[in-house]
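Hi team,

Below is the intake form for P2Y purinoceptor 12-like from Solea senegalensis. Please confirm the fields before the structure is written into the shared record.

FORM ID: S-0412
PROTEIN: P2Y purinoceptor 12-like
ORGANISM: Solea senegalensis
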Amino acid sequence: MESNTSFPFPEFPANHSHTNVTCSRDNVLKTVLFPVLYSVLFLVGLSLNAVAVWVFFRIPSRSHFIIYLKNIVVADVVMTFTFPFKVLSDSNMASTGLRVFVCRASSVLFYLTMYISILFFGLISIDRCRKTLRPFRGTNAARLARRKLLSGSIWTFLLVLSLPNVILTCKTPTSKYFKCSDLKTPGGLFWHEVVNHVCQVIFWGNLVTVIVCYTLITKELYRSYSRTKTHSAGETMGRMPQQPTKKMNANVFLVLAVFFVCFVPFHFARVPYTMSQTRGVLFNCQLKLFFFQLKESTLFLSSLNALLDPLIYFFLCKSFRTTLFKTLRLPAATCGCLTGRGSDTDTGSTPLRDSSVCS
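The structure came back. Fields below:
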């Protein structure tokens, strides 16, 4: 029996002896494939984010970009630690007490960190757009303090928003098989619906922000490329700078790529999934199962955020690369080889030059 509202938490069949086996969510995809994938994601993500934390602790917060990246690193680490609980829960290896913990805390933290990352992706997009349109505008201690205050406010707001989901998920399960919604009080059900609406606003607002910012960035890149091409055509001697310029500019679109790969599919898939939950009479069991599997598949893409974010740190932040290779005692030329820039120095003049130095 499905609940009346859609909950972004692991759900368990109300009765394993359901007459229609195809309607059961205990299938190979959920109980075997995804636990394996999340296990791999946990091991790789934990390793990469541990390195990221280790490097960022050695980098001073001297730019808006670095402040935002450090917050994303913290969110990714917290999200990564929720994966083992999801593995045990989905594979039916968890005890009843552990599944209750997943409903009350682990899943709440997972979605908390997801929307924290979404908000900071929006802020990064605004920052990159600002640096593109006004490349010579610097920063100062007051601006950095305001960005730190904004970061703290984001964490505080979402923590306060999520806390009632923990407190109001307090019912004792009456059966071995239960859904997270079965543990919520009436107030908890109402608050969870409120949180769902707030999260939708966060996502769609940041989606619009990202699209607008990168549209402006693309226009500026095109104008810059046109100016560079015109200037180069008039030169009779010297090295042609277009190729390294295009490579440097292309890297900034990693933020856009990670955002669309990780967050957009889940939120689009969540719409029909929610409808299948709230308007069950319009969907048969097979269609409900399909939308459930689609939601779980796109949720895994959202989890990949913890694995893909280190690419942003490496390719967009010269301070991160420099600190990493100095700590590993690798030659500086290695940076250039991996980023495709020959040498990892800031040469040339492009509107996105600052994005490679985390400014």
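SUMMARY LINE: DSSP finds 13 helices and no strands in the chain.

Thanks, M.
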